[in-house]
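WARN  no MSA supplied for this record, continuing single-sequence
INFO  ligand: MTE
INFO  echoing inputs
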Amino acid sequence: MSVVQKGGAAVASASRRQFLKAGLAGGAVAAASTVAGGALAAGDPLITEIQDWNRYPGDGVDAFPYGKPSQFESEVVRRNVPWLTSDSISSINFTPLHELDGIITPNGLCFERHHAGIAVVDPQQHRLMINGLVDTPLVFTMADLMRFPRENRVYFLECAANSGMEWRGSQLNGCQFTHGMVHCVMYTGVPLKYLLEEAGVKTSAKWIMPEGADASAMTRSIPLEKALEDCLVAFKMNGEALRPEQGYPLRLVVPGWEGNMWIKWLRRIEVGDEPWHQREETSKYTDLLANGKARRFTWVMDVKSVITNPSPQAPIKYKRGRTVLTGLAWSGNGTIKRVDVTLDGGRNWVTARLDGPSLSKSLHRFYYEFDWDGSELFLQSRAIDEAGFVQPTKDELRAARGDNSIYHNNGIQTWHVNPDGVIENVEIS
Ligand SMILES: Nc1nc2c(c(=O)[nH]1)N[C@H]1C(S)=C(S)[C@@H](COP(=O)(O)O)O[C@H]1N2
Ligand SMILES: [Mo]
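INFO  complex generated
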């Protein structure tokens, strides 16, 4: 749909009719509302003068053998919160969700979480071993792996610590920081099932333990059932080789489950009959409850959503009128069935419009178009997944799990829109 921003009135009104006919979710667009620049600005040099880019030829092909974003998009980058960790080797940065649209995260913007920095692994020298409770221990080269049938699947990866700083109250001002430990790409990889079948899993086997080739040698225990169901040994993201930050040349994909289990620089998979209780599944990534006990394992990333625009890093820059609200929803239980949004902190809810592919265990994009009257708003979104789970309020989460938790915060987020369009992270639940 093209909303005409400059040009003749006739064109503008035709497109206005289409715009209204297309049916906005929630409907209420006042007839008088105009978009910025709707009226022809007499004498605007950007219209009347020929600009340089319109006059001189640009760079030829091959000026950029590997293309990159426009120089005008230099603000669209991952960002770190320096006080969060003492160094950048075991640290985290965040996906700029407020700058993106659709459901796919561009490779260069996928958030990074490393426990010992980015391993630089030569694919020629990389090996994947399968050992433990198998008939034949095996070692695969990358070339060996290319001879197995592969699959292409779009999945989100969310760190269990995403929104962790927000557990006790609102902290960080921007959805990049509150919700940006999530990315969603199309993986190409070999189903782990084929590799385990090749080695011949013994009947006593119940668990696998993938291990990374980085200096943290990260290890996690994963039930064999999940390994056989939908895990992938992936070597491509969005069609090209994994980025070094994402585990080049090989990473484990564990759909719908917490990011920590998606071992990067995957070098070994041990098959066993019990979980190993490694550091990352005991002292870390477990949910400490009010009574001081911790949940043993919490694997699935529950239903969650966030409004990405408007939001603190994406304020409203006009006084009133036509406004596009958009955001992301996801669930480790499958697809998203519905997203509701409220402009008044939960008194009235309307159903948002889902647009784009609805793929199991991947990000979903929602929109709600409305006419802002310039008054203060309390924006929230609430997602419902195909299993019927409804995203909880933060109070509901704290009632169930107490104040000590960090991980697995899927509570409803509130943005406070001030009449001047400035937006803040607040909590009203
Ligand atoms: N080998 C290895 N795998 C790892 C990690 C790591 O530090 N080393 N970090 C884990 C954590 S905690 C998360 S959230 C995800 C992050 O994946 P990303 O860097 O692609 O966003 O990778 C996981 N896999
Ligand atoms: Mo993580």
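The chain has three domains: 9-55, 97-281, 304-426.
INFO  checksum written, moving to next record
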